[in-house]
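Backbone Fold Data
Goal — fold tokens
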Amino acid sequence: MTRWRASLIAALLAASLTLPGCYALDPEMKRTVAERKARERAPGAAQPKVETPAPDPEVPAIDVRRTGEHADWPAPRPAVDAAAASEAGQVIAKVAAAYVQLSLEIGTHEKGYIDAYYGPKQLFETATAQPRNKDELLLATRRLAEEIRVAMPGLADPIERRRAAFLTAQLRAAETRLEMMQGVRFSFAEESERLFGVRPELKPLAAYDAPLAAVAAIVPGDKPLAERVETYLDRFTIPADRLQKVFDAAIARCRGRTATQIAMPEGESFDLQFVTGKSWSGYNYYMGDYHSIIQVNTDLPIRLSRALDLGCHEGYPGHHLLNMKLEEQLVRARGWIEFSIYPLYSPQSLIAEGTANYGIDLAFPDKTRPDTERDILMPLAEIAPPTDDTYWQLLDAMKALQGARLTIAQQYLDGQIDRPTALALTQKYLLVSPARAEQMTVFTDKYRSYVINYGLGEEIVRGFIERGNPDRDEIWRRMALILGEPTLPADLLAP
């Protein structure tokens, strides 16, 4: 990691505790991975590693094919004149470079707007030295979007058209965020659609009364349900002095299960840090060169269930893997500079959070998660394994309540309820303590409609990947395609 990249988040990380991040594979996975690597290194096999962001013919082309009813995503287009296609492609490449500079300049007006950047150092320094004002940037987003619209008919290759569509959506999100910086307010639904590419259809809170009753049957008692649930789950809190060992083991297994299905770049790594004073429970800062910094917030006690959750979500097959694949397949293989930057308030986030959430069940299907937690993680945490499956039944039942968070956020941000009511409803429907409800509401205060990206994003990703009841190999193949292509939420929705 170069010094200038580290400077992007140096202030944020100054007080953090760095822990080792070079995790070994699960022992039971090593043989499978070794066999796959042997096949890849056989004579004639493609070598994915490249050294520069320029297009490299040795990197395999991205497979945009679909099987069964999903063949050709998107549909092939009529032939376009080669000269016109070349000219249109040059326009899109020019817009892409301008979009990166534009995004970096917007980032100077809002802390946290840029989640990751690992493009050229000179571009970063130029963009941030004398950034345009918000009005100028707003006009620039619209001008670049118009250039794409004009060039779009000349693009013949479906993957090039998807690139253009991706840039268009990103620019619309940038336009929206700039307007919000200047005081414009949208409804929750409109803000979600303009920033993240999906207009959520939310259930009324009454729709979650039946799931609440199901949870109540698992944890009977006379005290308020949220208090009963919190008391029960507190039994599975990881002691502070066991966090490193538990997370080491959890992430090793997340990585091991993912590595048997998706090839990873040589030398990929991350650092794990435990931090405080955050509104989120975990975060991934992608630094480029296949390296991430993964942070875990210890403001509140960390329960055992969060080990695999965060290991998969922030690491494998979640954010770390997604960013590595975008760098490998799009930045290095194709030279598409726009993927070297990640504006947080954009459709990229719905794909990132949706795949990261779905990746938990993907990596640990059926009984593999309870078995891993009971046999490996609980002993490391010095937690007595339960004698029955009540713990996992409770966690599964609580998943049916996740959508309530979106409804509460919508009512709160649209001014239909005040903050104390939002806190009370969060405790009731998310079954959390006052402290956890406060942390969740602080997150909503700061990130607003971003909350849709978790539950709704997972639902959209799951719907696409599992459409047509595919087998496990096809499920992983579809996941890999999402991770390594210019994917928008609309690409995943059923026609």
Summary: Residues 1-33, 45-74 have pLDDT under 50 and may be disordered. Strands lie at 17-19, 114-117, 269-275, 282-288, 291-297, 341-343. Residues 82-107 form the longest helix (26 residues).
